[in-house]
Request: fold
Amino acid sequence: MAHKGRARLFDALTTKGTAFTHEERRELGLLGLLPIAEKTIDEQVEHTYHEFSTRRDDLDKHIYLRALQDRNETLFYRLLSEHIEEMMPIVYTPTVGEACQRFSEIYRRPRGLFVAYPDRAELREVLRNRPEREVDVIVVTDGQRILGLGDQGIGGMGIPIGKLSLYTLIGGIDPARTLPIVLDVGTDNVERREDPQYLGWRHRRIGDDEYYAFVEEFVAAVREELPDVLLQWEDFATTHALPILDRYRDRLLTFNDDIQGTAAVALGALHGAAQTAGRPLSEQQVVMLGAGSAGIGVLEMIRQEMVSQGLSDAEAASRIWVVDIKGLLTDDRTDLSDGQRRFAQPAARVEGWAGVQLADVVHQVDVGVLLGLSTAAGAFTEEIVRELAGKTDRPIIFPLSNPTSRAEAHPHELDEWTDGRALVATGSPFAPVERNGKKRRVAQCNNVYIFPAIGLAVTAARATRVTNEMMRVAAKTLGEASPALSDPDEPLLPAWEDVPEIATRIATAVAVQAVKDGVAPERSDDELAQLIRESRWKPEYR
Ligand SMILES: NC(=O)c1ccc[n+]([C@@H]2O[C@H](COP(=O)([O-])OP(=O)(O)OC[C@H]3O[C@@H](n4cnc5c(N)ncnc54)[C@H](O)[C@@H]3O)[C@@H](O)[C@H]2O)c1
Ligand SMILES: O=C(O)C[C@H](O)C(=O)O
Ligand SMILES: [Mg+2]
Reply:
């Protein structure tokens, strides 16, 4: 801790603000730079919580917390950890969505790296200018598909910042070793581009040739500067997300959270749901609304799970129905990507149907599981849900699109239309559902149950790759922690207060799997468990 004087006082990572003791103030040259009172961190938490509570709306609260993070990270995380349920929706989904839309307007201080296309000749210098030398986790976006809100250009930076806050809060990654990055490659959002306040590069998105060359340059610079870092891709448009993952997954320590993290959390939540419904996944017909990278990623994992339950690949695929903006994916469609084609139903199977929209599929098929990753708000209509509820005792319905404004249905509607029988999980947080005077928490099936644990696992175990098996183990360990397994009235996923502990459990299982897969140095399971517990950063003044 080399800093002294003002440099120390204003270093967000090491400052204690009014909690510097008199002795420390003398040692560090801070005498007179602070009011005389000496606060404890608990008093600071109380004070900041009061300040937070007086802000007028959620965006204002977001701005307050982000400013606190820029001022005093230890206090920020301490405050968050004591109010995790209340503050998660403020620093993360859904409020972070609005913060991205209004990024330039609410901008106060820089954070992380802005890797802009016009600086492409100096990418290495950009990387070298990173705020801290040692980095365990990078979250990078290009801002093109921010939640279900589309292209936000540089405003997408809110997402890496928010995700990394949760890497620390839940996964115990040292905040000094996290790095949010936005690749500023222009924006096709005309409103943003023409907004005089816009802080990004005012240019249309670059073409694919330039784009992939730039991404390659970026990856090369990251490898040179930070060869051991975990590089997480976030909120890229599906057309880029899949090729990027394919290109780098075997070359780097990397994963795509929207594809792989989402798949793992969905499978985890389905574990408790299938058990409560009394019918394993391999005996369900599954319908997915949305055939983007998130939807296809989830379905790949569901298919593997059905196969592990004894089905052949073809049998599993025949139980999976995917509907996109044009209707059901069938093998006579010429507009499907390779990933989508794997889930196309034979056109012959739908011959004689009146149509191929979601309502038709639910009408024709004995659906037990309905999932939404479509951004289509309200697409799970009363009619569709009532029909589904007529086919099965415990319909499993997950409207997973974010933010709240994009949800395919709201939990209280699903509860009403199914007389309380639906097993529900949502992507964004919702208020508890009330039935017969009893309030029930709604599980938030969001990849935040997964990515912090992956970060913790690979950092502690010094893994060099994120394998499919590591993701499957994460899903399984989360699934086994479902409160619904012991009481069907309980939510499908654990409460936020329990999530840091469950992340530790998931991380341990993932680290053990990394060793098994030969992508982390040999260590015993006990050693890994201990390493993971010990490596967790805690929000305490040092
Ligand atoms: N809960 C989570 O953890 C989680 C994780 C990742 C993504 N998501 C959410 O999933 C959504 C989709 O993400 P993506 O990257 O796959 O997006 P995407 O834009 O690539 O895919 C959207 C898909 O939905 C289809 N679609 C759009 N409008 C439709 C409509 N009206 N009817 C039927 N289909 C329609 C499109 O054809 C496309 O196949 C976003 O809202 C995102 O926030 C949630
Ligand atoms: O950011 C989230 O809340 C989940 C997911 O990564 C998404 O893109 O919607
Ligand atoms: Mg995302």
About this structure: The first helix runs from residue 5 to 9. Residues 449-535 form one domain. The mean pLDDT is 97. The pocket of magnesium ion (ligand 3) is lined by residues 234-235, 257-258 (CB under 6 Å).
